[in-house]
Every structure is written in structure tokens, then in C-alpha cells.
Amino acid sequence: MKSLIGFQLETSNGSFGKLEAIRFETDRWAATDFLIDTRQWFRRSQVRLPAKFIESIDRKRHTLHTKLSRADVVEAQQSSYIPETIPIRAGAY
Questions:
Q1: Domains of the chain
Q2: For 48-85, how does the pLDDT look when each residue is reduced to its tens digit (9 = 90+)?
């Protein structure tokens, strides 16, 4: 999963940041959220996207794909519950 850090998030209406960190649920060791650096597109520096909204990962093009729009990505974080997690960040390991 650490190899995904820096991947571009592609939404239904274009690019919307780069993957900065991944949060894991400690009980199931499953990704729960992707933390996206959105400074180039949005006034907030980071947006949390629940993992369930990632449709696919393209390792050759270094992109994460979602069917959500940029506005939907921002909205999706509003209703996301984060259980006890372990963040994985670039250079953390």
C-alpha cells in the first residue's frame, strides 16, 4: 500500500489531488480512508476519501479512480466514520 503514496486521484470531472496517506482499521487490517492532498484544487490542504469510493487503481499511470466528482469527494468525507486506525504516510517505514 505504501507504494500508492503520491498517486493522483482522478474524479469524474478531472484530477483532484495526490494520495498523501492511507488509514487502516487495526482490527481487520483493511484500508478505511485515503487522505488526499488537495492544495492545488481546494482551499483545504487534505480531504479524507473513504476507501469504498475508490473504483480502481492504475499502477502504470499512478492514479486512483473514483466515479465521484470533486464536489462529491469533499462531501463524502463529511459522513465518514474513522475507527481506531494506523496511518501509513510516505517515508513512514
A1: 2-89 (2.30.30.240)
A2: 898 889 999 999 999 999 999 988 888 877 654 444 44
